[in-house]
Amino acid sequence: MTAVAHHTSTGLDNRKLAFWMFIGSECLLFGSLISTYLVYQGRSVVGPTPEEILDIPLTSISTFVLLMSSLAMVLALAAVTRGDRRWSRVWLLATAALGMTFLGFQAYEFTTFVHEGLTLKTNLFGSTFFVLTGTHGAHVAVGVLWLLTLFVRSLQGKLGPDKAINVEITGLYWHFVDVVWIVIFTVVYLLS
Amino acid sequence: MATSVMEHTPSAGLGARVWSWITTTDHKRIGVLYGVTAFAFFLIGGLEALLIRLQLSHSGNTVVSAQTYNELFTMHGTTMVFLAVMPLSAAFFNFVIPLQIGARDVAFPRLNAFSYWVFLLGGLFLNASFLVGAAPNAGWFGYANLTSSQYSPGHHIDFWVLGLQVLGIASIAAGINFIVTIVNMRAPGMRLMRMPVFTWMSLVTQFIIVTAFPVITVALVFLMFDRYFGTNFYQVAAGGDVLLWQHLFWLFGHPEVYILILPAMGIISDVIPTFSRKPLFGYAVVVYSGLLIAVLGWGVWAHHMFQVGLGPIAESVFAATTMMIAIPTGVKIFNWIATMWGGRIRFTTAMLFAVGFIAMFIIGGLSGVMHSSPPADLQQTDTYFVVAHFHYVLFGGAMMGIFAGIYYWWPKVTGRLLSEGIGKTHFWLTIIGSNLAFFPMHFIGLLGMPRRIYTYDAALGLDTLNLVSTVGAFVMGTGMLVFVFNVLWSRTRGQPAGNDPWGGATLEWSISSPPPAYNFSVIPEVRSRMPLWSENGMTPVPAVPPEPVHVPPGSFWPALAATGIIVAAVGAILKSLLVVLGGGAVLIVAIYAWALEPFEV
Amino acid sequence: MTDNHTHAAGKHPGVGTYVTVAAVLTVITLVEVGVFYVPAFHGILAPVLLTLSAAKFALVVMFYMHLKGDHPIFTMMLSIPLLIAIAVGIALLFLFGVVALGGTAA
Fold this sequence. Notes:
The complex is a heterotrimer.
Chain A: H1 14-40, H2 50-53, H3 56-81, H4 85-115, H5 124-155, H6 164-190
Chain B: H1 14-22, H2 27-55, H3 66-101, H4 109-131, H5 156-184, H6 197-229, H7 242-276, H8 283-296, H9 312-340, H10 349-371, H11 374-380, H12 384-414, H13 420-446, H14 463-493, H15 557-574, H16 577-596
Helix pairs in contact in B: 2-3, 2-4, 2-14, 3-4, 3-5, 3-7, 3-12, 4-5, 4-15, 5-6, 5-15, 6-7, 6-8, 7-10, 7-12, 8-9, 9-10, 10-12, 10-13, 12-13, 13-14, 15-16
Chain C: H1 3-10, H2 15-37, H3 45-64, H4 72-95, E1 99-100, E2 103-104
């Protein structure tokens, strides 16, 4: 990413503006998925039902993990901004690791559900649940890949303070994915 | 030393020239690519229309089978909406917006190229379905559960589901690109309320695109999962609701019609003042109406569903919102007419199409308002009355607006004017043909002929009206041939255009036709909404740059990334995970190469 | 107008603020889970949980994503689509009979 920040009408960076617009767009994507989940709640003709199968304590832990990954992310940005190479790498890796931990929890949850008789096809809940949380998980996975890429760039000495904007944008993506999970956790798990 | 878009470099071999087009990141060339490709798809969609009209020219006809007929009207609609009107508008977004705001290019030139290649490959993918005898056949709106694997076996709907998702990627990417461009790359002094209305309406359109397309993406993903993985989103037996599809589709589909019409409204808002030699009447009102339409457009979608049994409360709400949205839409008409009033009008071909837009859009708007009443709509819906309505607004409106733009900006793009004589022939054939084609449909519909039927009984007594409509369609087709002839004629015989053949008011007319690769030798400072019509409206732009201007190089990665996406789509059709992953791998490689490539705008 | 300009306008919060926000987020999450398990709250579960998660949402968006203190255009780019999504979601809840005027449907 070598685009130089040129003069702009608002004084703001093009990439940051673009990314916020992308986030706006993603609000409609996840909004449609969540609305579908809500509209279809309770309409499955056969079980398992959410009450029977969702593991609130376990998911609370994974939610906490993801929240902490957002903390690691902002600390990574702070480190990159002040040119602290060591802590940039530590926090970037930590964010990725926490993200991977979350994905691990998701993988565990999905496989457990399949063993307990809930698949994409089983009923309406299976379809809406797996597509919604799966889409979210895919977003997390992309984020992890992105973070690891930045980590490698940092190892190569190519992630100095001049690249802070790139890390900031990575952060925007990561926090947004976290924020979507906040909504999903509430709507799917706690309000089941 | 910069060269212009259209300049040929005879010394470069064919391979080098093709490569320069594949790797171009210049918004002007990308605009030309969009225009040519979209027009080709427009002609294909037109052929589909002619076949439809041929089949319906009289009762009990046997030109095509029922199955082929379903494919024809599906592909005609899908092509015209996604592969013709939208990308023709995109051609103008690309070529004109940076010039109108005084920029050297868009915010993300490689992303811009990416959008084009995804569009091209997506359009080819959709049409490739014909080659394997599996063209989409469930209407351009693909209602569930007709589109389920149970009721639509084979690949027809898979092509549709995958093709539209691919095209959606192109649109959202371009939407973000143009929003950032317009917000962030305006010349000094080019305040938002000094921007040409075309740029304003384009900005509003992009905002609608980035918010509406994700919704149809979700609807399509659900359908894809139902068909491929046996999910239950639209499976009634499992508790699903086919209306979910309709809601999600029309939540996208209604904003989509504003995506289709706002750019054309923007075009004529620039054309009419130029050829009335008078500023646009009520600029602020026109701009705010556009914004209001974008907002209100989110509140009317279920008027496409008045016949499903929404219940009296929902129907009343949507009837009210639909009637309300007629207001900002209609207000603009008064602004355009008031602009012409007292002006020194020149009826160039561009102006004829612009005025034709107004007339046709009024008619289409009136039938539209008739639909806003649920009881009236209950008779009109799913009949040819609706077909009349949307062809008046989409052909009579959007397409004629686009033709106005083509005639208006052609000299800027190519350096030559299109023939006015041939152009007027094109115009008259088009306006007469389209009225012949679509006006009878109001009656055909009210007299009881449903949509989407491949034939009808003589006892309906609609043979004559249908024949008139078919004749009209062929008159329109002739008009299109005349236009193509005009294009070819103008290549060698078109009058060379200077910077400003029409006496326009906005920045694009301050530079050469065609513009140099870098657009503006010096970015001007703008002091007026009509810089070329105002005393001291802008600082001068010298013919030669005082110091060298950096023009970004081309890049291959956007085209490669697009290829990766389409390979994945092909893999999905083939039900080959290997090919899907292969396409994904190509995409990832291209993204990394793109990210790591040195590229200075 | 270079990167320096944009970052001066940024003024990112310090580490202390970030950790405090993380602590508040943790506490809210604990409260949410706690409320979920307390039978007394079941009547008002939905509004309480929605409010708490909205608070978490706002904290992350304002502080971690730095909307607070950034140019208002970013807030607009998030808020307008978000409002559209929420409005459409609520409309769909009504249209599908999940809620009705005067309380939730059966």
